[in-house]
Amino acid sequence: MATVLTTATGCGALLLEDKGPLPPRYSGPPLAADDVVADLTAALEAEGIALERMPQEHIPIECHESLYGEHRTATAGTALEAAFERARADHGWKAETGNGQDGRLHIRKGNWTATAQVPEAGAPGTAGSATTPVAVALGCDGGLSKSRSRTGSPAPSPTPS
Question: pTM (2 decimals)?
């Protein structure tokens, strides 16, 4: 049962009973990182965007992938939006809540979410440049910081790739 507290100003605060952690967003078998990266890379390449996969030793979070590269400044935003639409249409990704409202694209497949900032033509730093940076971050549910070895570098991720 909830308890209501009121302060001297008449504002109230509603305290709720703690019912424990929320259920997972995805309850099926986890998807392999290689599979989701391949899906998204295929959709991006079909729209003319060639991104490279960041090596795992440069990523400090388990169950995280990063794709990066450059694309023609004039078409980078529309090509990225088209690639995310293709990922939904051809590869089974689903749109996430708030997709595109904050200038970011969000899609989800299984236990993975992909996010990208939509580059704007003429944005500061791109004036006169033929290309603009494009990056897509992928993260899975429950990703944690990687344990560090004695040398301070991240230990290899135990998650399947």
Answer: 0.71
